[in-house]
């Protein structure tokens, strides 16, 4: 069936601020859907309150509504303009729940809006645990024994009937919120109370816990002719008992028999058909008993899911793009395959490589949190790696995580305590994968590890092979490693730094040089969706060690943009926004724009954004070989947060041009001593400070600069490890802990300006002129990290003298640091005196917020300035903001009920929203000001 021409305008509901359980994978899906609908000449509107995402940028949709995600906001949009249809399947659980609420209030009917991509009835069937269970029974699909409960009494009766262990699943929640396992009767009351409170309908499913069973997901698409295809099978490395968002996952499924897969596939199609007649995407989760291959259904989501982004990047099949075309009437055989451009979308991708996803946690930000993984999701981001084999992809994923690991072990960071290792195997946390390797290295038998972890033997045997290879490597020196064995090591994902560590007394560069002498270099393979059966037209690559290289270097002048790796607190989706704009600006400036990143949730890693995408770790060895192959004019490190910035020193050492501000000038800003010397020379005030390498020195410094003091390590992100201390005893504890967590680092001790106001500026410098992008005033006082503060644009209470000082200091520092591109400066204001706290010559967390508030494409401008193709005077910049914009931090404390909500110099927020107010009499603003100091802590 061709496109439904009655749909001329569509509203896409976004997912709101980033929280644990609902991150930027939905912004990726929403962005892709919007662009897909625009291709069809449809007018696209988006409602989303998140300013950090590219999804809410005017390059994505025709109308952007940065408003709170409420039915009232939606109704206001429907009054303002004609909307024919709403697509709620791209915004996660938030969008589905909002769509359902609007339906119940009669909003869609009142304004003649059709719901496309899903049936509202299907949302009810899948989210209502009892309705879902009954439907599965009716169609003959196995489910775990369970009962619904709306009260304590019903919950206790259910537990008595089913027996322990149990799982409690609240209805209509996100990322497993309020859910959990109950192993014994004494734990039940507390778990039931939490589940009933978490569900908006105070309803839970009390279910038999199939702990230790294997877990799988299938991604489906269906058109209005009822054609259904399976895009991807995903297997969880971790067995049932850990939320899929916290599980290491592998695609395609590795340990599934063909008979079991066919059975699962048939059941998934039957389930999708049973929940409604809609055309669009669907995610189904199953559990399989490893003893007899019995299959039970866990849940079905009638929307693009967290895994859909992963499946899209894994297969090269753009699920959200195709799902949105199906929602407006097209059938699968009428849509072009986006990768080959010669076949139709009515096909199931075939992979000749393996994908591994590893979640990224931030437990260090939640002191006192229960770090054990379970039914409630706790990770803040994820990485994806592509390799020819599972073990190659697994090691590449470990290198991508940004936790200072060189791969899976073999880097000197192993745990030698057998008690800690065995406890960690049984009680899964963020490091269980590494502990499995440590256990094997210490001689713990594979079968013992399998019994404790219940991880499939095939996965464990793959990891054990790494231990055997390491033992063999230790027999050699660098110059006598046989070439074929060297190739094997690289094919198994070993980095040069791991090989150097295992050999001892050699450097990473020496290993790199030796293998290049032997002709062992990375080659790049194309992601083509069809195992090379048809030629691909999309330049989307991963590396491996084989003969043929499929990535051909062009003659065009080119630039490489380094991405920001996995999302974590302090470095989130706002850097993806910057990377996308940087890529587009480079393309507009006549460059071939090349992206390097490993985050599957982002728009920057979509295959149609850059001229060339390398889905690779932002890890020195990988970046170096891409640069050697492509020979770019230079590398942009300003847009990928601290991840990309950390590459600057290596690039500088190897004579690779950094586009924009030089390494030395960036280092002046990062090095507290050099930066303070610069401020002194410029006669700009800054808090008294000192540097210490141990606790004794720290006490001397603190007494010189005066308590209270702010203690922090050098070169960190999101205030990691920062604390405010008020006496020698607390200082000693803080310094000992810091140097234990970050050995070899130096500790900076600043006098803390108590009861100061905090402000910040973002600016662009082209070497001659400086343009102030925005000045912001924080509502919270100095001492609360800027990422956790409500920032108001423009300032609301600063005097003209203070504003003039901020602008003057911003310009002075930009010129002194020879900035080419972006600069963010943090200030503290006390008694009308402006102090500079720090300067970051890169894209900041706040630039996307300012760009949205003022409706000016600042990253695009900054990139063209960095590249030297434009000066600031070439641009006409017109700000469009009436009143004020507030950047509101959003927290995920509900995932860690045992953690206090105190705020301090270490960032804890996971996302942000934007709120516009007409004036300072706004009641929301007045409440923020009233409560501003309440959570300030050390």
TrEMBL record:
Q: Which UniProt keywords apply?
A: Amino-acid biosynthesis, Arginine biosynthesis, ATP-binding, Ligase, Magnesium, Manganese, Metal-binding, Nucleotide-binding, Pyrimidine biosynthesis, Repeat
Write one Gene Ontology MF term: metal ion binding
What is the stated purpose of this protein? Large subunit of the glutamine-dependent carbamoyl phosphate synthetase (CPSase). CPSase catalyzes the formation of carbamoyl phosphate from the ammonia moiety of glutamine, carbonate, and phosphate donated by ATP, constituting the first step of 2 biosynthetic pathways, one leading to arginine and/or urea and the other to pyrimidine nucleotides.
According to its UniProt record, which protein family does this protein belong to? Belongs to the CarB family.
Biological or metabolic pathway of the protein: Pyrimidine metabolism; UMP biosynthesis via de novo pathway; (S)-dihydroorotate from bicarbonate: step 1/3; Amino-acid biosynthesis; L-arginine biosynthesis; carbamoyl phosphate from bicarbonate: step 1/1
Q: Which domain of life is it from?
A: Bacteria
Recorded hits in PANTHER family, A to Z, give:
CARBAMOYL-PHOSPHATE SYNTHASE [AMMONIA], MITOCHONDRIAL, CARBAMOYLTRANSFERASE FAMILY MEMBER
Give the catalysed reaction(s), semicolon-separated.
Answer: hydrogencarbonate + NH4(+) + 2 ATP = carbamoyl phosphate + 2 ADP + phosphate + 2 H(+); hydrogencarbonate + L-glutamine + 2 ATP + H2O = carbamoyl phosphate + L-glutamate + 2 ADP + phosphate + 2 H(+)
Q: Has keyword Manganese? A: yes
The ATP-grasp domain covers which part of the protein? 133-328, 676-867
What SMART domains does its record include?
A: CPSase_L_D3 (SM01096), GARS_A (SM01209)
Q: What protein am I looking at?
A: Carbamoyl-phosphate synthase (Glutamine-hydrolyzing)
Question: Pfam families from the xrefs?
Answer: CPSase_L_D1 (PF25596), CPSase_L_D2 (PF02786), CPSase_L_D3 (PF02787)
- State a GO cellular component annotated for this protein: cytoplasm
GO process annotations (BP):
glutamine metabolic process; L-arginine biosynthetic process; pyrimidine nucleotide biosynthetic process
What cofactors does the UniProt entry give for this protein?
Answer: Mn(2+)
**Binding partners and assembly:** Composed of two chains; the small (or glutamine) chain promotes the hydrolysis of glutamine to ammonia, which is used by the large (or ammonia) chain to synthesize carbamoyl phosphate. Tetramer of heterodimers (alpha,beta)4.
């Amino acid at each position: 069936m061709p496109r439904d021409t009655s749909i001329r305008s569509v509203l896409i509901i976004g997912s709101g601020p980033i929280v644990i359980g609902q991150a930027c994978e939905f912004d990726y899906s929403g962005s892709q859907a919007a662009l897909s609908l625009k291709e069809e000449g449809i007018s696209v509107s988006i409602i989303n309150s998140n300013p950090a995402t590219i999804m809410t940028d005017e390059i994505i949709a025709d109308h952007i509504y940065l408003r709170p995600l409420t039915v009232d906001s939606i109704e206001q949009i429907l009054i303002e303009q004609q909307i024919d249809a709403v697509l709620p399947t791209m915004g996660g659980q938030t969008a589905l729940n909002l769509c359902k609420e609007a339906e119940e209030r009669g909003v869609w009917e009142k304004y003649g809006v059709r719901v496309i991509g899903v049936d509202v009835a299907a949302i009810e069937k899948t989210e209502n645990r009892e309705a879902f269970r009954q439907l599965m029974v009716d169609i003959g699909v196995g489910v775990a024994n369970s009962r619904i409960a709306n009260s304590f009494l019903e919950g206790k009766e259910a537990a008595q009937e089913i027996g322990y262990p149990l799982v409690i699943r609240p209805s209509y929640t996100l990322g497993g919120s309020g859910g959990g396992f109950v192993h014994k009767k004494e734990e039940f009351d507390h778990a039931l109370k939490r589940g009933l409170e978490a569900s908006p309908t105070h309803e839970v499913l009390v279910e038999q816990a199939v702990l230790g069973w294997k877990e799988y997901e299938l991604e489906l698409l269906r058109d209005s002719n009822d054609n259904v295809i399976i895009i991807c099978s995903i297997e969880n490395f971790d067995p049932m008992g850990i939320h899929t968002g916290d599980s290491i996952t592998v695609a395609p499924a590795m340990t599934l028999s063909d008979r079991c897969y066919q059975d699962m596939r048939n059941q998934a199609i039957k389930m999708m058909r049973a929940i409604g007649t809609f055309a669009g995407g669907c995610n189904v989760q199953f559990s399989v008993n490893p003893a007899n291959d019995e299959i039970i259904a866990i849940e079905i989501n009638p929307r693009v899911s967290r895994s859909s982004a992963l499946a899209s990047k894994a297969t090269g099949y753009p699920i959200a793009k195709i799902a949105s075309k199906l929602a407006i009437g097209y059938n699968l055989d009428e849509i072009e395959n986006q990768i080959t451009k010669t076949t139709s979308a009515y096909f199931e991708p075939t992979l000749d490589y393996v994908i591994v996803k590893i979640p990224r946690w931030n437990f260090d930000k939640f002191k006192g949190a229960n770090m054990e993984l379970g039914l409630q999701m706790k990770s803040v981001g994820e990485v994806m790696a592509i390799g020819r084999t599972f073990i190659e992809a697994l090691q590449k994923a470990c290198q991508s995580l940004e936790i200072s690991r060189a791969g899976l072990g073999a880097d000197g960071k192993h745990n030698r305590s057998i008690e800690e290792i065995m406890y960690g195997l049984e009680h899964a946390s963020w490091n269980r994968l590494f502990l499995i390797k440590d256990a094997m290295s210490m001689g713990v038998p594979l079968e013992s590890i399998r019994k404790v972890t219940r991880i499939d033997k095939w996965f464990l045997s793959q990891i054990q092979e790494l231990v055997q290879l390491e033992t063999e490597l230790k027999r050699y020196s660098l110059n006598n490693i046989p070439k074929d064995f060297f190739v094997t090591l690289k094919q198994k994902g070993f980095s040069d730094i791991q090989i150097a560590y295992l050999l001892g007394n050699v450097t990473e560069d020496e290993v790199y040089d030796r293998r290049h002498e032997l002709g062992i270099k990375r080659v790049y393979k194309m992601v083509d969706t069809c195992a090379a059966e048809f030629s691909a037209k999309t330049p989307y690559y991963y590396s491996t060690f084989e003969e043929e290289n499929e990535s051909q270097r062009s003659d065009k002048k080119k630039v490489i943009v380094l991405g920001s790796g996995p999302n974590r607190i302090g470095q989130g989706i706002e850097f993806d926004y910057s990377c996308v704009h940087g890529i587009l600006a480079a393309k507009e400036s006549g460059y071939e724009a090349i992206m390097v990143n490993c985050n599957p949730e982002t728009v920057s890693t979509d295959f149609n954004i850059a001229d060339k995408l390398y889905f690779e770790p932002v890890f020195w060895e990988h970046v170096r070989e891409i640069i050697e192959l492509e020979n770019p004019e230079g590398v942009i490190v300003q847009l990928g947060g601290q991840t990309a910035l950390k590459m600057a020193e290596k690039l500088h050492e190897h004579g690779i041009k950094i586009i924009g501000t030089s390494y030395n000038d960036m280092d002046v800003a990062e090095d507290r001593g050099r930066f303070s010397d610069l401020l002194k020379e410029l006669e700009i005030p800054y808090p008294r400070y000192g540097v210490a390498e141990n606790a004794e020195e720290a006490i001397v410094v603190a007494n010189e600069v005066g308590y209270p003091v702010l203690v922090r390590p050098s070169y960190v992100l999101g205030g990691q490890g920062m604390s405010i201390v008020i006496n020698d005893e607390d200082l000693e504890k803080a310094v000992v802990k810091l140097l234990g967590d970050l050995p070899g680092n130096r500790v900076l001790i600043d006098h803390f300006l108590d009861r100061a106001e905090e402000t910040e500026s973002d600016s662009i410098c082209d070497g001659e002129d400086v343009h102030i992008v925005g000045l912001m005033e924080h509502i919270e006082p100095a001492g609360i990290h800027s990422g956790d503060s409500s920032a108001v644009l423009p300032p609301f209470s600063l005097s003209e003298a203070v504003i003039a000082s901020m602008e003057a200091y911003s310009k002075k520092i930009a010129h002194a640091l020879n900035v080419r591109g972006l600069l963010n400066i943090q200030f503290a204001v006390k008694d009308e005196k402006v102090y500079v706290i720090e300067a970051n010559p890169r894209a900041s967390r706040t630039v996307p917020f300012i760009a949205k508030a003022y409706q000016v494409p600042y990253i695009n401008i900054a990139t063209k300035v960095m590249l030297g193709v434009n000066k600031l005077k070439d641009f006409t910049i017109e700000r469009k903001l009436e009143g004020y914009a507030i950047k509101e931090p959003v927290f995920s404390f509900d995932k860690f009920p045992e953690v206090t909500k105190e705020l301090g110099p270490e960032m804890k927020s996971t996302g942000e929203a934007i709120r516009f107010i007409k004036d300072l009499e706004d009641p929301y603003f007045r409440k923020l000001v009233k409560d501003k100091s309440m959570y300030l802590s050390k």
